[in-house]
Design goal:
The chain is an alpha+beta fold and about 550 residues long. The chain has 20 helices and four strands. Helix 6 packs across helix 9, helix 13 packs across helix 17 and helix 14 packs antiparallel against helix 17.
Length: about 550
């Protein structure tokens, strides 16, 4: 790195929310404004650093990512010494880094969390505890996208589950405890599946050899680089033949084992995405969690499942992913069409947006199923775009609810008269969600469907039905809220406060910016594809 080469910037990013958490715990419990200001200032640190990273990454044309690492846990193993091997170690590395795939999601996490910190004025109780869990959640999310070691990735993922459980269960709405328990059960099952897959992966491909002179160290780790190298280029380890290892070749993974791991990753991350029919827990969270937490859940946490599927499922097992491309496309179509159809039937604005999230995650799966550069770019673009759009819409829903005490569509109407600013923002967010050209939602959907059309034209044709349905339910909901007769009890309702208007304006500005200048994101994704994804696909999937 150029400007920031002397600073451990990647470590500072997840560490800053933890430092802010300690500051919050030291502040007086009744000083709500102090606690709120501390949370906002803390979340701005990762946002600023991620923007600096982006600037440096683009200037260097993404030739290589940035990494920081050190031995975190190092345990010697007692094994019979083999010829030429002098020591064995089990290492969990503190390894963090960014590349063209993870950097956009790091920026998304930092931006949405900072805007959610502004929007947390809706919290009415136990402010100190709320902001402490809030900042722990951000540290976990950043850790997921920055981690370069499987165990660090898993620990960070679990931190987000713990923090979300308390944020939903304590500060949610009427059925908050049931929603929190359902969230914990489903994600716990997903985590158990992923832990099983990670352990198998490390025990088969997680070996790394370091040579110092005539000394060979046999290191047992979960570092991404070691896993990818061992999975894609086993001939690199000819200096240790299977005979030298007593007939055991640890870098070999049978076809059956590869399929097993691919399915485990698909199911584990599919629960967290979520893929239909593992979606019911998400509906509870979106309707019962407080607005600022739903912003983060829909804007970032759902993206962690897709990121894991791409990083582990497609990146490490491209042959299996390509063989199941049609299955991924069918799952994507199911999400897209089911979510859109059910959203059209909903009478609660929260549930409309919840099913909309399911539908839009289907577009991500369609981009994955395309299995080409344009499709994968579209999938990641859709992740970022939907993260911004859903965060904006759920912020607006929370603000409307604070003033009207309802999100039932039959009880709303004509709010553009008393709340013109928020109504205009709702219309703009709705247009972005349905894919209006000039807004980010259009680019993500266009690239994903173009990639799918190149690979599976008939499936892309069916996916267009979902786009039409999206326009129908979005316009129906938005027009019902903003226009028509207004209940007199809402006539005196005030429009957005400054602390609410700022995140609304910022999120919409970024949505418009990406819609008008998509190369800001597609360039980083291109670098990632050329340096990370394409070599893997070319080597192992024959394309």
């Amino acid at each position: 790195m150029n400007v920031l080469s002397d600073w451990p910037i990647l470590s500072i990013m997840p560490a800053s929310p933890l430092a802010g958490m300690l500051i919050v715990l030291l502040l007086p419990s009744r000083r709500n404004r102090w606690l709120h200001a501390a949370a906002i200032i803390t979340t701005l640190v990762p946002l600023i650093l991620s923007c600096l990273l982006y600037s440096d990454f683009v200037n260097m044309q993404g030739v290589s990512g940035y990494e920081e690492q050190a031995a975190w846990v190092e345990v010697p193993l007692n094994k019979e010494t083999l010829e030429g091997v002098t020591s064995y170690k089990f290492i969990i590395q503190y390894a963090v880094g960014v590349d063209g795939l993870s950097l956009p999601l790091v920026i998304l996490t930092a931006l949405v969390t900072a805007m959610a910190a502004f929007a947390s004025v809706h919290v009415k109780k136990r402010w100190k505890a709320f902001y402490a869990w809030f900042l722990l959640l951000e540290a976990g999310m950043l850790g997921v996208f920055l981690a370069r070691d499987i165990f660090l990735f898993f620990i960070s993922f679990e931190l987000t589950i713990i923090a979300m459980y308390f944020l939903i269960g304590i500060w949610g709405y009427f059925n908050r405890e049931r929603a929190a328990n359902q969230f914990l059960i489903y994600n716990g099952i997903g985590s158990a599946i992923l832990l099983t897959a990670f352990i198998i992966l490390v025990n088969t491909a997680g070996f790394h050899i370091e040579q110092t002179g005539n000394v060979l160290e046999f290191i047992y780790s979960g570092n991404y680089a070691d896993l990818a190298k061992n999975m894609t280029d086993p001939t690199a380890w000819v200096n240790l033949t299977s005979e030298a290892l007593g007939g055991l070749n640890p870098f070999h993974m049978s076809d059956g084992m590869q399929w097993t791991l691919f399915v485990l990753f698909l199911v584990g991350f599919g629960i967290k995405l979520p893929i239909f029919p593992f979606h019911t827990w998400m509906l509870k969270v979106h309707t019962e969690a407080p607005p600022s937490i739903v912003m983060i859940h829909s804007g970032v946490l759902l993206k962690m499942g897709a990121y894991g599927m791409l990083r582990f499922g497609i990146y490490l097992f491209p042959e299996q992913a390509k063989a199941w491309a049609v299955v991924l496309a069918v799952l994507g179509l199911a999400n897209l069409l089911y979510g859109a159809l059910i959203a059209f039937r909903q009478k609660d604005l929260k549930r409309v947006l919840a099913y909309s999230s399911i539908s839009h995650m289907g577009i991500v799966l369609l981009g994955f199923a395309a299995f080409n550069e344009i499709g994968l770019q579209g999938a990641v673009f859709q992740l970022v775009s939907h993260g911004l759009i859903s965060a904006l819409l759920f912020l607006l829903v929370g603000s409307f609810y604070e003033r009207t005490k309802t999100t039932e569509l039959p009880q709303l109407g004509g709010l553009a008269r008393s709340m013109p600013f928020m109504s205009g923002m709702l219309l703009a967010g709705g247009l972005a969600a349905l894919g209006l050209p000039g807004l980010s939602g259009f680019i993500g959907e266009l690239l994903s469907l173009l990639g799918l059309f190149e690979a599976h034209p008939w499936l892309a044709g069916l996916a267009l039905l979902g786009i039409i349905l999206t326009a129908a339910y979005v316009l129906r909901s938005v027009l019902k809220v903003t226009f028509g007769p207004m209940d007199e009890q809402y006539a005196a309702a005030k429009d957005a406060r400054l602390v609410e208007a700022v995140p609304m304006i910022v999120l919409l500005a970024v949505i418009i910016l990406l819609g008008c200048y998509p190369s800001m994101l597609t360039d980083t994704l291109h670098y990632s594809y050329e340096t990370l994804i394409h070599p893997i696909l070319a080597t192992r999937a024959g394309g």
